[in-house]
Every structure is written in C-alpha cells, then in structure tokens.
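Morning - ME8 inputs below, output right after.
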Amino acid sequence: MKNHFYVTTPIYYVNDVPHIGHAYTSLAADVIARFKRMDGFQVKFLTGTDEHGQKIARAADRQKMPLQAFCDKVSQNFSNLSKVFNLSNDDFIRTTEPRHIASAQAMWQRLEESGNIYKGTYSGWYSTRDEAFVSDDEVENGLAPSGAPVEWMKETSYFFKLSAWQDKLLEFYEDNPNFIAPKSRRNEIISFVKSELRDLSISRCSISWGIPVPGDSKCVMYVWIDALANYLSALGYPKIDEEFSAFWSQSLHLVGKDIIRFHAVYWPAFLMAAGLDPPKRIFAHGWWTNDGQKISKSLGNVIDPCDLVNRYGLDQVRYFLMRNMPFGEDGNFSDALIRGRINHDLANDLGNTVQRVLTLVSKFCPDGAAYNASNLTTDDKALVHAGYKYIDEIRHMMDELSFEQALRVIWGFICDINKYIDTQAPWVLAKTDTKRLETVLAALTESVFLTALYIRPFMPDTADKICNALNVNSDLRLYNSIGVIKSFSGPFFKPEALFPRVQDVTS
Ligand code: ME8
C-alpha cells in the first residue's frame, strides 16, 4: 500500500472575497500536495469554506440575501480560486453540506457520550469578527487581542470540559515535539495551556445559522466546533475505515498564526475526548503585509490574488509567494518585490538557462540527446550526480515546509548548470569535438529535466512546458525518474522565452 498524506487548509469564511492570505495558505498546501504525489504518496488535499455563525449571518444580512444563497455565491469565489491558482485539491468541503452536518453532529454526540459536555450559562465577551469568546483579561479598550470589537453576551450554553484536558494536552505536546510548528508557536501554545484552561462554550442558543445541537434544536453548535470537524467529515467520519485511518494518521493542517489556538488546543482536546487521535502536525505560517502595512479592508489595501495572476502570470505569482516569505515568518508584498523576483530569478536565472540549453540542443542535436555513462568526465558527474542528490535535501526541506529554502537549493542547481555551460562551451566543441559535444548536451538536457522536476510542485505549468520540450511523457514526471531517464528523444525545437521581463515602473 502506498504511503498516505493528508493536507488541509483552513476552511475560509464566506463573509468576503478571497485575498492574498487565503491564496497563500492554499498554495502552500498545493505545493506540498504536488510534491508528495510526485514522490509516490497517495495524497488527499482538502480545502473549503466555513459558512455558519453570526459573522456570516450578518454579512448575508448586509447584502440583503437569503443565507444559503449568499453562502453559495461567496463559496464559489473560493472554489474559483482553485482554478485561477491551479490548485490540485482533491475535495472542496462546505460546512452547509449534509455530509458535514452529519459528521459534526456525530462528533458532538461522541463528546456528549463520553461525558465531556454539560449545560450552563455563558456570560462574557464575544468577538463576532474572530468568532471567539474573549476573556476579561484579554479585552483592552473594548477590543479583543486581534483588534476586533467585542460584545457582552449572556446565554444558556453547552460547555466542553476543556479544563479536564489540560494535563493530557501538555503530555501530548511533550510526547509529540513536532506536533506544533514552528517552535515559537509551540512554546506560545504550551504556555497558554499551562495557564488556566477554562471550559469552552460550544453552542449558541441566540442565533439560528448553524448546525443544530443534537437533541436540542433550539441551539446551534459554536461555529469553531462545527468548522474544525470539516477535517474529519471529508474523510467520511463517523465511518472509520482503513482509508480514514491511513490519511488521518498522516494529517497536516496548514493554518495562519491567527488560528493556531483553535487548532492546537481546542481541536486535539475535542478529538481526544471523542476517542480519536489528534492530527499528526499543525503548521502555522506568518502574515503577509502590503508595502509594510497590515492588510485590511478598512485600510483599502487588500490584495486580490486573481488580479495579481492577471497582472504577472500564474507561475510568477506562485513562485513569488513561496519564495519571498519563509513559511512560518511574516512577509511583505510589494510590486517592486514581485517584479524583482520575476526579472531576476525567473527571466534571468531559470528562463535564460532553460532557453540556453534548449537552443543548444535544438541546434546541435535536434533528434535527441543521450550519453554513455562511461564517457562522463568529473565535471559532468559533478553536475549530473549533484543534480540527483538534491532530491534528498529538497525532500527534507519540503517535509519541514521550508519552501523558500527548497527553492534556494534549486536555484543553486540552476546556477551550476549555467556555469557548466560557460566552462564546457558547447559552441566551441561543435567545431572541435563533436563526440564530447554529445555528452555535454545530454548532461545539460538531463539537468534541465531535473530542474523541471524540482520546480514542478511550485510552477507546474512551467515545468510541464520544459518536459514537453524534452518530450518526456507526463506519467514520467515524477521523482522516481531521477537518474533513470537519461536519454531524451527529439525532435527539439528552438524554444520560446518562458518568462517575459516586467517593467520596473508601476503601471
Ligand atoms: O479563520 N497573511 O477563516 P478566514 C497570511 N474560518 N495568511 C492569511 C492572511 C494574511 N494577511 N489573512 C488570512 C477562518 N490568511 C476560519 C478557519 S478552519 C477549521 C476555520 C489566511 O477566512 C490564513 O491561513 O478568516 C488564516 O489562518 C486564514 O486565511 C483565515 O481565514
């Protein structure tokens, strides 16, 4: 049986259109999903939309639209994002779907059966924008720590006995040091759990837009318990079969740092209380700013990811987002930064190198390129064999979600290819040593193929253009082709530029 891998994004609120931050998390999930598929894993990549709760109900009201119709409309913008960004998600879950409602209710029932739910009265602060209960000491000047306004709330509520899970959670973090990443977030969560953990209100009896509490149709589930359950619904919960277990045991939740507490504290507690294992890993990435400023609607500086793709091209945007912000840290967007990456890394480094090699092979060996391994010189081996070995380094970096570092390694290889062209000077060999020329061109062709394999999770269209130019079948564009495909049959044609340069002036 193949190794399984399950990667998820947060399910996004349908109160607004997607922005660069949503595209970023989904893109990161796509890159790791594509990498794992190319590396022989059976992958499930899930994304979707979070459609219940007060925030959505108010947004629909503002638009004067019926709730479900409003959700259908906004959710469509998020599923369109998959097309625009070439995301390879295997599923798209919506929390208003019957499969999810049944699954979330089943989880609630397990929590109830295991004695983890009781009824009481909640009185305290609530932030609708964050859909979060906020404690007295967290409120400052009438605002939650996120800056969102809070409202006082008093109502009958079901509670989850979170306080009873404090020791179990700490024990779990201790036994699973990689559960929360990066390390800084892990420390933050451990100190939060070590401080007092209060029981959590998990229902709303004053609103109706939500999943009914089993056995009490006057109340709906708190939107976060509903939302978190999506990760299970998409695997078919409450049915627990071999496939469920294979994926769940290899699950990775990618989230932004804003929602780490829900994922790393509440979620594992709910799961353990329902008799399930926590996910394997939660990785919280950082925050994008726009020209150094926090991105917000009120500042009017929200970046529309679809507009970026229209302006700069899809693979250009995918590359920039993965390269410019180390996963886990914060990063900044500006037009100057993306233009710099396109002109320098894509047009000059990657584009020119591929162009140089394809031009050479189309000129000197248009019918095909192959070498005899015994003819390889030390220089050839230094290039090609190093090219094979990069997969180990890249695999390690991808497992750590170090996308930016993996790209640096790939760019190091591109730089080696360029140097090799200069030192071997195939245009001279064409006049002096055609036997040697054959080997050099074949080593270059293979190196460009390896480059295509390495960039493919990040820039699938560009990689496929290169593989097409080298006539490599689509089912061979996988990591187990490394060091196996060494001969490439023609015809090779004079290539087109992969990346046009962009103007440095703001258009
Ligand atoms: O929180 N930079 O949904 P949401 C980077 N429905 N990432 C950003 C970002 C930014 N400036 N802004 C948003 C919710 N994100 C809940 C999740 S999951 C069970 C329920 C990304 O629509 C980042 O991934 O507010 C963040 O966690 C997510 O969008 C929040 O999306």
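Note: The domain at 4-286 is CATH 3.40.50.620 (Rossmann fold).

O.
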